[in-house]
Amino acid sequence: MRKSIIATFIATAFISLNAGASDLLQIYKEALVNDAQFSSARAAKLAGQERSVQGRSGLLPNIGLSAGVTKTHSEFNPDVGPTVTSNSTGRSMTLSLSQPLFNMATWENYEQSKLAVVGSDLQFSAAQQDLMLRVSQAYFDVLAAQNTLKTLQAQKVAVAEQLASAKRNFEVGTQTITDTHEAQSQYDLITAQELAGQGDLDVKRAALRQIIGKDAGDLAILKEGVQLSAPMPAQLSDWVTSAEKQNLSVAASEVSLEVAKREIKKSRAGHLPTVDLSASTGRSTGSSATLPPGVNSPTTIGVSLKFPIFTGFATDSRVRETIALEDKARSDLEAARRTAAQGARQSYIGVVSGLAQIKAFEAAEISSQSALDSTKLGYQVGVRINIDVLNAQQKLSNTRQSLAKARYDSIMSGLRLKAAAGTLKEADLVEVNALLTQ
């Protein structure tokens, strides 16, 4: 038993030591639990689901029970004779029921409540898509800041080596003081850039911490030489059509338009009569000095009709108001469609342009590496100077940094394209997560 416990402890410790860096999917799971904005959206969805129950209540009967006890004391002072006093006690209990038989406004209110539930579900789905985008953007912002800092640190090491070499060569008289000053200037500049890069990385990590509520630790990075796929379908028009029909903001605007139409019907119902069924039964007891104790048990049932004749023009005004609000909702829907279509276009162009940039930067990386090797060889044989080597190193580092940034931007454009089309799911994050490595 003891050996089993020890073995379990060792295995657990080994797993903890080899847990590795957190990947995008793990960070997203943390955000689902800890992100304050998403928690707010989840609570709003739960609250919205109660709207249909409240709307349906107007169609169901209302049942109430009332009870009371009364005591009465009275005095009668005649002009002649003694004062006459009397006391009485009464107890009553009434059970009442009211059932709407015809009330168009109440029915339209119920239909609106069902649409409100649909709207709250759409808002929650939009919040979930927004969380995916925010987590992904914050994640790749950290990776980009790390790449920038590592690039600057590598450049600093190279510049430091060149500075030391320039100083040695100056001391033996093979180089001028100008080379030393140039190397020192490059070193001071790269030191300042390194400090700025460290600060930017801290800011990006703080942004990710704000979403998941804790420090993310080490993050998995993109695989070396990863290849990104082109958007499918390949035609921009397909994405635009999908955005105009399936985008969550468009769907929410369609629901709002339907609610506005129902509001017009509800306002016009102010001109219609209402019919209600009412019933009650009760029991009352009483006694006094003049009446013997007794029990009264009345039961009533009836139908009431109410027909509005004049409401001070309030109903007509309300109808005109709701018609104007319907026009507003229709315009909001058109604006949502145009915004979704524009978002799809921008994201599609971002993906296509990003993939083209990646190919260009990959070619530039090969060329920059060859140029650096040639410059180093020229420096060794004396046909190149120190500043040429530093410039070639910086060019290669900047090219690699730009290549990594282009990959991050292309991935984010792909996610935004799917969000604009209304198809972004957790499975898309799983696909992106497969591109990462420990």
Automatic annotation (TrEMBL):
SUPFAM superfamilies, A to Z: Outer membrane efflux proteins (OEP)
Keywords, ordered alphabetically: Cell outer membrane, Membrane, Signal, Transmembrane, Transmembrane beta strand, Transport
Compositional bias per record (Low complexity), positions renumbered to this chain: 278-290
Region called Disordered, residue ranges: 274-295
Compartments reported by the entry: Cell outer membrane
Signal peptide bounds: 1-21
Primary location: membrane
Keyword rRNA-binding (UniProt): no
Family statement: Belongs to the outer membrane factor (OMF) (TC 1.B.17) family.
Name of this protein: TolC family outer membrane protein
Organism field: Undibacterium flavidum
